[in-house]
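Q: Could you fold this chain for me?
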Amino acid sequence: MEHDKYKCWTREHIGIKKCAFWPKIRVLGSLAGCDTQDVPYDYSATTECLEEPWKAQYCNGGIIHNSECYNGTQGWTVYGQGKIEHRVSKNWNNFIVALNRTHPSDSPSQQLNLTQGMYYAFSAWIQVGEGSDIVSVIFRGQNGVALHGGTVIAEKGCWSMLKGGIISTFSGLADLTFKTENTTAEVWIDSVALWPFNRTQWRSHHQETITKVRKRKIKFHVTDSNNVSLDQAMISLNPIKPGFPLGCSINKNILNSTSYQDWFTSRFTVTAFDNEMKWYSTEKTPGIEDYSISDAMLQFCETKNISVRGHNIFWDDPSYQPDWINNQTTAQSLKEASDKRMISVVSRYKGRVVAWDVENENLHFQFYEDKLGENASAEFYAKTYEIDQNPLLFMNEYNTVEYSVDRSAIPAKYARKLKNIVSYYREMHGNITLPMGIGLQARYLPGQPNLVYMRAGMDYLASMGFPLWLTEVFLMKGENQEYYLEDVLREGYSHPAVQGIVTWPTPPSSADCQMCLTDQNFKNTPNGDIIDKLIKEWSSKPLEMTANLQGFSEAMLFHGDYEVSVRHPNTSSSNNVKLQVSEKSSDFVRLEFGDNLRVYL
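A: Sure. Below is the predicted structure, expressed as structure tokens.
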């Protein structure tokens, strides 16, 4: 008999588990109780540093031996120098410690047999013996290949979850290792899990989640005005607008091109402007503002019922400031100019944008923090909210879910920055939580994206409870570009936490086509064909149903707006009403057929 560490509960509609400390009898064995042919993906994650770790994912660790360290160091060896030892906490939690380290990669290790092309989902709980440091997981092949699987900021005194994974580029033996630059610190590990999925299984997760979070089964009941059921009534459903925001960026050329307008408006429901709303575009000369182009673009979008993300108020990269702002600009003059910019753009477009990218890329760059102090970002978000309280306020970063080797914007740093912004406002304004958004650009270099790491990063950040968007999806030109673009879009759309996607293609007029959706005549490229294919797949088709003898009929519908009409054999009349289907809408709709069709939810 052993103590299991946790009791788990499940949010069934998205398949997420959360666990709390609770002893119970446990069956030993790494795959105890698991059907190895049908293991679901585990979306659970947390950004919190906990007194004790959760239980290992994937049936007590999946293919990891002695994942929760109940059997001492059995199955674990030392990678590099130093030694490992087994310890037990005051709460009877078992874990393994690497100590006497002299190299960043000295760590506990297990040797695994990887298969090329398999998707390996990984998680572990990490603590360090002193301070805090970034800890990475690396799968080291015998051929010298090192596959980076994820990172976390580990701390002394509490356990942090490292969630990630790899798509293996080779078949053969590999050493599972951990790396941290502080060689004087002990590295503690527990609840280590690794599970392999093939591509078919990985894709099956998409469909399962789409059915749960992007669709809703609606039961219709057709009655007359006396609430008497009408059998044989014909119900027609015509989709008007999809519920999930999918879009692409646009530039000023759309204002003078009907071909551009037709191509764009026939496909998308949301957009962001390439450059036209940015500070360096609206105030090229200090004190002289010109919003004429962004005004026209926003008005165009409003007439076409297309939502706009406000991109952006500030950009933390020193290379993308107005020419008259540079490293010689004093802190006082920068504060005055930035305050003026904030009030100007946010007030002008208040109530007309669905989101603000308040400060772009403020993990990779610190232009404003260096000039105005460490709370510059937090103050920008606070001031934006004071002016315009309805839109989501986004951080917007690259390489957070794309590449774990970029330590500037790892998910743990993203979460820490977001928490600082939120806590800064809560402390000053009576516990009010800012309406934050998690913006992940999803910009990839040529080659196969690490979809496992992408999903794990989204899981981790989604646990904070804020809406998540893919804001600038872009894949640099390379072999199989359209194939990989489809993979990234499917991964984003199917994730339970993602509430919108904006692609960021090369402008149609550009001669350098890095990721074009059309040619210069607005004929689809293979990338554009992928977009059309997915829009069609993720939309309900026009549907006609016949009510049964009790007047009922059912349909599984994508979220969105529909026009509903009802006809009956005993009358020639037909009436239309609008219906919105969403996660929160009723799953029962009564259609009262008479002189006017009425909807009762």
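A (continued): DSSP finds twelve helices and 29 strands in the chain.
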